[in-house]
Design a protein that fits this description.
heterodimer, A: alpha/beta, Rossmann fold, two-stranded antiparallel ribbon, 7 strands, 9% strand, globular, B: alpha/beta, seven-stranded mixed β-sheet, five-stranded mixed β-sheet, 35% helix
Chain lengths: 331, 341
């Protein structure tokens, strides 16, 4: 379906918010103001924005170690996200999760995941719950090209197809599994070839084109809502920063030329070149979206830095639920 | 089948261990629309040991259905459904197969609540069958409860009677935490009294199944009846054995154990799992920490040797603890002559 002007503005705003959050997180990490690991989503914004632009609040998503972008695209609050990255009590996970486990179940975001492929079976379970309850909600699982090499992916994809569950598989093929080129870890060029093995329709989409992502996701989500089972989308995309952290140039595992080639197809710049041409947004209006995001992230960083550290007395909280049959008292 | 309750004179219905499991499933599913069962052969086949017999017919294939042989996806299916508001029971058939699904069990289901700052609720029950003694060999006979009990976020249930099977399974399914419910596959045909109504046995509470004051024997699963046999053998010699059935290994009812040790001053821990790093090591450490001054002898462990479970009945008979080896362990703990001496 052709996105309306309103939808294009929404997709643009989602991408800009992701980029703004991630650039800020990268700067904080470089300044040693963030503990732990950081996997930035910069370059891949069109995938999360395009897909989440199709979704309803009730639809679930599960994510990866590179998960900030998915949460932002689903409506994540910068303040609670940044506080979580800093390990503060006010973070989405009360400082218990951090970057790699950031989640907001109120937004039906079932978590970033530190295990490659670990979120795929969980998303399939969410899809089962939707079918079981008889609603027409859809669960979407984001995963990288590398995830499709792990057993859990195969098991879950086959399960979703065998049980005809309302799940959309979104592969973010950024051509590297950590620092190893994809062609060294699989003997196929297009990850989507794997979908046929599950009896699942699959498409290749330009993952730097948010409109193409939106349209492909729209079709896959509509199919799932209609009870026609799972679909597979392979988004050809690229990460502008490293697997981990922010260093860009001079790394041995990929060439600076390759990076520059991809950066010429920056998903935000591509859309921003189009929007004034088609009369959807002026250059000033585009700049205003960036300004708003900068104000939002500035306030979020202040909020996070001024937030209290978690109380050590909360260390053992939430290991178990204290509800249910006979509580959770565990020694 | 019924028998008469010796105290009340009323007839108490008897069910097998697996029959009690099946009845718990049927009653909980009738009680709660959010409970469903998924796993290998749980549908029309009713489970390879009959745990789920008749459920697909009674509740339909929406609520009891077969899945591919794919343990990671089975547990993930349950985890995702649980976090989305359902109360899944997923079956892994043999306890050995938890190893196939360990990422989904230990890294995902067990940790989501904590990692998400408490927001997630995971009322997931994983059912499986453990224990040796059927010549099922090294990949279908293991007792891996120590691995599971080591993971914060999981509860681990190992009942020894049909009564506890029913009550603890109901409690497991209604509990809002990921729980691994381990049937012992050599006990499936054992009969015992089981009330017809729906009831719960509290998770985390052990049970003194024989009172005594000379030595505390701590066991769970099939080692409970073996320990009771050992107690009976020693009673003829005037040794008074107290037998504790833990019923749950995580949470561990250490208070009950310590209280007993303070009375008997001797403790023997019995399990089918290998001795090294087993529950006996943990219980030994906690008893030492909490009741050192009450101990008249070191903690004794009766457990499997440090090898895979052998196939041959001739070898397996030497591998799994039994009443005879438990008697030896008790003699050792009490400083009585053993057959080896």
């Amino acid at each position: 379906m052709e996105p309306t002007a309103e939808i294009l503005q929404d997709l643009h705003r989602r991408m800009v918010r992701i980029r703004t959050f991630e650039e800020a997180a990268g700067r904080l990490a470089e300044a040693n103001r963030l503990p732990g690991f950081l996997h930035l989503y910069v370059g891949e914004e069109a995938v999360a924005a395009g897909v989440c632009g199709v979704l309803r609040d009730e639809d679930q998503i599960s994510s990866t170690h590179r998960g900030h972008g998915h949460l932002v695209a689903k409506g994540g609050d910068f303040k609670r996200m940044m506080a979580e990255l800093m390990g503060k009590a006010t973070g989405y996970c009360n400082g218990k999760g951090g970057s790699m486990h950031i989640s907001d179940l109120d937004l039906n975001m079932l978590g970033a995941n530190g295990i490659v492929g670990g979120g795929v079976p969980i998303a399939v379970g969410a899809g089962l719950a939707n079918k079981y309850k008889g609603n027409d909600n859809v669960s979407v699982v984001f995963f990288g090209d590398g995830s499709t090499n792990i057993g859990a992916f195969h098991e879950a994809a086959n399960m979703a197809a065998a049980l005809q569950l309302p799940v959309v598989f979104v592969c973010e093929n950024n051509e590297y599994g950590e620092y190893t080129p994809r062609e060294q870890t699989m003997a196929i060029t297009d990850v989507v070839d794997r979908a046929a093995g599950y009896g699942m329709p699959g498409v290749i989409v330009d993952g730097m084109d948010v409109v193409a992502m939106y349209e492909a996701a729209g079709e896959a989500v509509a199919r799932a809502r209609a009870g026609e089972g799972p679909s597979f989308i392979e988004a050809k995309t690229y990460r502008f920063y490293n697997h981990h952290g922010v260093q860009v140039l001079g790394m041995k595992y990929r060439s600076d030329e390759e990076l520059e080639r991809w950066k010429k197809r920056d998903p935000i710049e591509l859309l921003e070149a189009r929007l004034p041409e088609i009369g959807v947004m002026t250059v000033d209006e585009i700049a205003e979206v960036h300004r708003e995001a900068e104000v939002e992230i500035g306030a979020a960083i202040t909020f996070a830095e001024q937030s209290p550290q978690p109380d050590p007395a909360t260390l053992l909280d939430d290991v178990y639920s204290l509800t249910g049959a006979n509580g959770g008292e565990v020694r | 089948m019924t028998m008469t309750d010796s105290q009340t004179g009323t007839e108490v219905r008897q069910l097998t261990y697996v029959g009690a499991f099946n009845e718990a499933m049927r009653q909980v599913m009738a009680d709660d629309e959010n409970v469903f069962v998924a796993g290998e052969d749980v549908g029309k086949a009713g489970g390879v040991f009959g745990h789920f017999a008749g459920l697909a017919e009674e509740f339909g294939d929406r609520r009891c259905f077969d899945t591919p042989i794919a343990e990671q996806a089975i547990v993930g299916l349950g985890t995702g459904a649980a976090v989305s508001g359902l109360r899944p029971v997923v079956d892994l058939m043999f306890m050995d197969f938890v190893l196939v699904a360990m990422d989904q069990i230990a890294n995902q289901a067990a940790k989501l609540k904590y990692m998400f700052g408490g927001k997630a609720t995971l009322p997931l029950t994983i059912t499986t069958n453990g224990g040796a003694g059927l010549s099922a060999a090294a990949q279908h006979s293991q007792s891996l409860e120590a691995l599971l009990a080591h993971i914060p976020g999981l509860k681990v249930i190992m009942p020894s009677t049909p009564y506890d099977v029913k009550g603890l399974l109901v409690a497991s399914i209604r509990d809002d935490n990921p729980t691994v419910f381990v049937s012992n596959k050599r006990m499936l045909g054992v009969k015992g009294p089981v009330p017809e109504e729906l009831y719960e046995v509290p998770i985390g509470q052990g049970n003194i199944v024989r009172e005594g004051d000379g030595v505390s024997v701590v066991a769970y699963g099939r080692m409970v009846p073996e320990s009771l046999k050992a107690a009976e053998l020693l009673a003829a010699e005037g040794v008074s054995v107290e037998v504790i059935d833990l019923r749950t290994v995580q949470p561990l009812d250490i208070d009950l154990i310590v209280k007993s040790v303070r009375k008997t001053n001797h403790i023997v821990v019995v399990h089918e799992a290998v001795r090294f790093g087993g529950l006996g090591a943990e219980i030994s450490a906690q008893v030492t920490e909490q009741a050192f001054d009450y101990l008249d002898a070191p903690v004794t462990r009766v457990a499997a040797p440090f090898s895979p479970v052998p196939f041959s009945p001739a070898l397996e008979a030497h591998y799994v603890p039994n009443a005879g080896s438990i008697v030896e362990g008790i003699r050792q703990a009490l400083g009585l002559p053993t057959s080896a001496a």
